[in-house]
Structure to design on (324 residues):
């Protein structure tokens, strides 16, 4: 799409940054409140109930660490995609965006295996409050990973044709935020035992 | 292409992203190994302290928050303050089991037969009995 045919909102930058980027920052801001509320509630309950330590001992630290590695690596691919978009290399940017989406898919595959194991051992979302928090927080995060991976692939399709390269940065900001959420979920759910 | 050219003007050289990623991985390893010592202070520092450092590094180097206008940083900080306000407002209710004239029966350590014990049944007018 040529810039002449683009909606005015896409070209406006009265706030000092492109409107699209500002919109993503607003999304991130609202997500901070959503995930922050869940994590703050979890911390409150965790500190108030020593018995949760017994439940938390059943989460798999190795799997959590592997998934952290996967997400950190996917974040590297996302920022490398952005660097290539900045250089005007849409094909290479698309390549890195697809690698990022692959990272998201691996993350979800590992998480599916993890949940399958936990549920088959009797730890379900209704087992007790710890597991309710566990599945709610990790599940909401997983939904964000799935949504991000789909958007990454859509943007990669255009980027491969050198179209709308500014969107590479926008999805990157979102993806890095999803990574940051996991950076906090990992110690809270897997390490503090 | 126009956007790419505009971006190119903003950033002349890319940071060494692979090096930043490598540092993040080293921090990840420390955050896993630290709590194995089972020393509370070390666990807090290595697990949660390092999580804050990792988040800062991702926000600064990958999200490029450091080169955004200041108001974007203030926007993010405001949301974090909201989170702290929420915590401060709700924590006293969640984290305490009893206070002045109130108890949470299911979590109370009150002795059987006294107010606060889960099986306590109030008698008299306070318990709804009328003569």
């Amino acid at each position: 799409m040529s810039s002449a045919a683009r909606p005015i909102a896409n070209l406006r930058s009265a706030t000092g940054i492109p409107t699209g980027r500002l919109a993503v920052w607003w999304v991130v801001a609202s997500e901070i409140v959503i995930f922050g509320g869940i994590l703050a509630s979890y911390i409150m309950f965790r500190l108030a109930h020593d018995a949760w330590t017994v439940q938390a001992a059943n989460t798999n630290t190795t799997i959590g660490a592997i998934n952290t590695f996967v997400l950190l690596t996917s974040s590297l691919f996302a920022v490398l995609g952005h660097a290539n978009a900045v250089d005007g290399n849409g094909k290479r940017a698309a390549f890195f965006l697809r690698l990022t989406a692959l990272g998201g898919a691996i993350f979800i595959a590992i998480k599916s295996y993890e949940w399958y194991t936990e549920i088959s051992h009797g730890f379900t979302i209704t087992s007790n409050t710890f597991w309710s928090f566990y599945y709610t927080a990790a599940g909401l995060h997983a939904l964000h990973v799935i949504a991000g991976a789909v958007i990454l692939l859509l943007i990669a399709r255009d980027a491969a044709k050198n179209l709308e390269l500014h969107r590479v940065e926008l999805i990157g900001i979102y993806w890095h935020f999803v990574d940051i959420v996991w950076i906090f979920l990992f110690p809270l759910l897997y390490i503090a035992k | 292409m126009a956007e790419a050219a505009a971006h190119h003007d903003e950033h002349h050289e890319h940071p060494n992203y692979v090096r930043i990623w490598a540092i993040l991985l080293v921090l990840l390893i420390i955050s896993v190994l630290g709590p194995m010592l089972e020393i509370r202070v070390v666990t807090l520092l290595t697990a949660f302290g390092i999580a804050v450092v990792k988040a800062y590094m991702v926000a600064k180097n990958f999200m490029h928050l450091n080169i955004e206008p200041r108001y974007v940083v203030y926007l993010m900080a405001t949301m974090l303050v909201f989170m702290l306000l929420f915590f401060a407002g709700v924590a006293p209710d969640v984290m305490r089991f009893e206070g002045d004239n109130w108890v949470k029966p299911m979590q109370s350590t009150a002795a059987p037969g006294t107010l606060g014990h889960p099986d306590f049944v109030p008698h008299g007018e306070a318990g709804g009995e009328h003569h």
Q: What stands out?
A: The two ends of chain B are 87 Å apart (CA to CA). The beta strands of chain B are 98-99, 102-103. Chain B has a mean pLDDT of 81. The CA atoms of residues 65 and 92 of chain B lie 34 Å apart.
